[in-house]
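User: Can you fold this complex?
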Amino acid sequence: MFKAIGYKEWLKIRWAALGIIIAFILVFINTALTLSYIVRTSDPNLYWNNLIFRMSLYYSLLKYLPLLAGIIISFFQFFPEISENRLKLALHLPLNEKSIILNMVAFGTTTLLAIFLFIILLFTLMILYFFPVEFLYSFLITTAPWFLAGLTIYWLASSIFVEPMWLFRRLFLILISIAYISLLYASKGYNNFEVSIHWFFLISIFLSVSILISTARFKKGVI
Amino acid sequence: MEYAVECKNLTHYYGKRLIYENMSFNIKKGSIFGLLGKNGTGKTTTINILNGYLKPKSGQCLIFGEDSQKLSPQTKANVGFLMEGHIQYNFMNISQIEKFYAQFYPKWNNAPYWELMSLLKVLPEQKLSSMSCGQRSQVALGLILAQDPDLMILDDYSMGLDPGYRRLFIDYLTEYTKGRDKTIFITSHIIQDLEGFVDDIVILDYKNVLLSSTIDDFKNNFRRFRFILTNKSHQKIEKDATITNFEIIKNNIFIYSFSDINKVRTYLQSKNISVKDLEEIPMTLEDAFIGLTGKY
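Assistant: Here's the predicted assembly.
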């Protein structure tokens, strides 16, 4: 039965997921070509200076893409569910209601993780090609909050979509989301989240099940 | 008596607006039950409570003995649900949606579904979003029939359907429930379609239940009389135990009552209302419904 839920979710998000993958690949190609050009044509010391002291991120194009991906997947997955109260159909399926919702979220999360891991792998190969291995660690630590922001906004946006009470609760959740995501984007340099990322990770994991509260309120018919 | 559905003392408010108070009804296993009422009287509210999508302010509904707010997966598998407007997953095509639902229901039998689809002359790849309202209603019905539940909850099945699709819907329901101990809970605006289909009815008015009866008792005992007033005594006509409702159109007075013509005549005489040509006018179920609930 959970395979069937996965099938339904896949039908909703497959084209969105493909679009996101294409966008990530385009960003990767652009970054790789730019890097290749700079490495071949400019003074390595000057470039190093530019990267470290002026905190110019050579993969800055990647910055908001995970966030956008999280919002898009959440929209394509949950907008059809809340339009015309279609979520009632899912909740009527002969399964535990929490399991149904968590499976839907797990499917979206897995899709995003797969896309993120794919793009991280591409960037890893590119970095190892151009730079020493230390650059890879820096890349992973620096981009971790961006990818975490992508997953977190997916969980929060899904919760916002399902929440039945527009004026107060949805607005409240939107403000909480903006505040939290802003924290994940607060850094402008390299490795700034080195000592704190695990705390953000824990908070995000906690937020990942916020949709259960919205679903319980949807089911009670709160207006 | 075994009941598929028992609702006890349901009271619900939206904000401060009372929908109904202390409403109770039972649905016998194997019967067809119609919940009737004008728009805004709480039909969909009742269906939402029954399906556990809405928590009533007080009271409780039981489905096959289980609290409707906490239905087990086994009971849910035995309840077919048609959402108002025949809402389904319109991002799927008719083949995908059948494949999806088939995974959930142990008694799944896709024969009636594909039989209905063949009547529509649509391809298996046809997306629900590109189908007409009537076609989507048949998809929703086909899915419920394939599920083969013991209880079907059908919220305003007639919404947006032309007479042909409405007839097809009722004909298929009749055929598939015949002699199979299936229970149907149905709401509709099109009262005449339910004539000859439902066994028991509850008619809702704003804030309360107007009538709870078998359809035969209602049709046999609820009457309409017409007479002509010979003076201005119509001001003495008011709703009470004898006169359930009345209409005044120029000099013609229409009275709706559960009493027979002799009792009505005696009653009018006792009120000193002078009448001419008092006669009973036959009614359809829809006439009776309007007579009971009023036109506005």
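The mean pLDDT of chain A is 90. Chain A has one domain: 2-220.
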